[in-house]
Amino acid sequence: MNGTSGALRLRPNGRSPLIVVPVLITGPALLLVGWTQPSATASLVGFGMTIYALRNLLILYQGRLEVWPDGLVNRLAGQRAEVTWERADRLLVIRTLFGRYAQLEERGGPRVSLAAPRTSLIMHTPRFDAVLNDLSRMPGGCRSPVPVHRTVPLPAITVQGILVLSVVGAVVVAVLR
């Protein structure tokens, strides 16, 4: 998968640090609260937020997706995946409480979370669907386009919402004690 003609190169949305940086500041602040007012809940949530924000920063600054007529190369937070279109089964749009991202499902193999396109509730990527359609039509030669499947978000988003509210409630109770 090399050459220069016909390639599509994508990176994660550059505006996302506006979300990641406040979370990166809040995580250590909760850790500090957890240590000064002994609270295991605040410490664990602060640690989790810090790790999550650092992972997102890695995705922002190292994430790259190169799509070629014969396959794609994806780099995401230290992981590198190379997939040929013959092994690609479908593209999935994964909806979460905080946004959407794309995955490529391999035939009889794992899913590959793509570095781009990604969008969030606050930092919306207006061309998400257009870029996804471009990706699905990238297979060259006599290969047919890769189908796009959009997941049904309600059960996952409901569970994520309940978890977020539970964690926030636990931190508030732990800090106010």
Protein architecture, described:
Keywords: Membrane, Transmembrane, Transmembrane helix. This is PH domain-containing protein. The chain crosses the membrane at residues 18-35, 154-176. The chain is of the alpha+beta class and 177 residues long. It has a single domain, classed as Roll (PH-domain like), CATH 2.30.29.30. Helix content is 42%, strand content 28%. It has 4 helices and 8 strands. The protein has helices spanning 17-36, 40-62, 128-136, 154-176, and strands at 8-10, 64-68, 71-76, 79-84, 88-96, 99-106, 111-120, 148-150. The chain has a 4-stranded antiparallel sheet. Strands 7-6-5-8 form a 4-stranded mixed sheet, sandwiched between helices. A hairpin with a 2-residue loop joins β2 and β3. α1 (17-36) packs antiparallel against α2 (40-62) and α2 packs across α4 (154-176). The protein is elongated, with a radius of gyration of 19 Å. The chain starts with 7 loop residues before the first strand and ends with a helix. The model has no long low-confidence stretch (mean pLDDT 83).
Low-confidence stretches: none
CATH topology (level 3) name: PH-domain like
Distance between the termini: 58 Å
Taken from the alpha-carbon principal axes, the silhouette is elongated
Number of helices: 4
> What is the H level of CATH, i.e. the homologous superfamily?
Pleckstrin-homology domain (PH domain)/Phosphotyrosine-binding domain (PTB)
Structural class: alpha+beta
Q: Strand tally, please?
A: 8
Mean pLDDT: 83
Q: Count structural domains.
A: 1
Range of helix content? 40-55%
How do the helices and strands follow one another from N- to C-terminus?
EHHEEEEEEHEH
Reported for the largest beta sheet, the result is: 4 strands, antiparallel
Assembly annotation: single chain
CATH class: Mainly Beta
How big is the Rg? Answer: 19 Å
Strand order of the largest sheet: 1-2-3-4
